[in-house]
Design a protein that fits this description.
Helix content: 10-25%
CATH architecture: Beta Barrel
Number of strands: 16
Distance between the termini: 35 Å
Strand content: 35-45%
CATH superfamily: Hypothetical Protein Pfu-838710-001
Number of domains: 1
Largest sheet: 11 strands, antiparallel
Number of helices: 5
Radius of gyration: 18 Å
Structural class: alpha+beta
Length: 259
């Protein structure tokens, strides 16, 4: 079974592990039409203590595919008391920097559960047909007014290796096939993810706050274990002791354990 097994969501059901994400963290409907896409992959990940080029080379060898390359900036927001973090939930605004896209940003909410390898993730993406940097600035101003502050930011170059492309169905029954989540134009909401697929990602953290310059992730739908496990094993075989298991969110490594 490769289906996420979860029903479609909208603004009114945009929750993470039972926690309803505050509406103040979402883009209002009267700013721009948006779609909510549920995500529920399994993740195996490591901090990689090798040059980024070496990490990319290994992932190219074990997957047999060429990566899509893009630069993004992830900004994480929370209350001064870290209320979201305390629930093991993160909300970030992902700004798409390069290459240019019709959407300047998306809002991503993720729950990371207990520390584990592999570990199931859950959450959603609020995506758009179109938005711009002016709307991004407007959203950041809204966060500040509502009492949210930036608690972390990662300016990174992401190398995505789409091993098994994800598949979704829109409200009209039309299938959408993609190697990664993108802004969606002429589709009918809601969107149902029927297969998250398998992808490998190398994040060049540029100005990394960690001892290692990169993070490697293998993300897959639960039904794709036979395809994903050899890839993860191949990465470990190639890099061995240069890998440090990443058992939880990056935020926990920066901010300490959630209360």
């Amino acid at each position: 079974m490769t289906s996420s097994g979860a029903p479609p969501i909208d603004r009114h059901t945009a929750a993470v592990d039972g926690f309803v994400v505050p509406d103040a963290l979402l883009v209002p409907d009267d700013w721009a039409p948006s779609l909510f896409v549920r995500i529920s992959p399994v993740e195996v990940s490591w901090f990689a203590g090798v040059p980024v080029a070496r990490a990319v080379e290994v992932c190219r060898e074990v997957t047999g595919v060429e990566p899509h390359v893009r630069r993004v900036i992830d900004r994480y927001f929370d209350t001064p008391g870290l209320d979201l973090f305390g629930r093991r939930v993160s909300v970030r605004v992902r700004q798409h920097v390069e290459p240019p896209r019709a959407i300047a940003f998306e809002v991503i909410a993720t729950g990371w559960g207990a520390d584990a390898i592999p570990r199931p993730l859950s959450g959603f993406v609020q995506t758009f047909a179109r938005n711009d940097e002016a709307m991004l600035e407007r959203l950041l101003e809204r966060y500040a007014r509502e009492g949210y502050r930036q608690v972390a930011a990662f300016d990174k170059v992401r190398y995505t290796f789409p091993v098994v492309r994800g598949r979704s169905v829109d409200g009209a029954g039309r299938e959408i096939v993609s190697g990664e989540l993108r802004g969606v134009g002429e589709v009918h909401p809601p969107i149902r993810v029927i297969d998250f697929g398998v992808k490998v990602e190398v994040d060049d953290l540029r100005d990394s706050p960690f001892p290692e310059p990169a993070i490697i992730e293998v993300d897959y739908a639960p039904g794709h274990v036979p395809r994903a496990r050899p890839i993860a094993d191949g990465i470990v075989a190639a890099l061995g002791a240069r890998l440090r298991a990443k058992t939880t969110s990056k935020l926990a490594y920066l901010l300490g354990s959630p209360r």
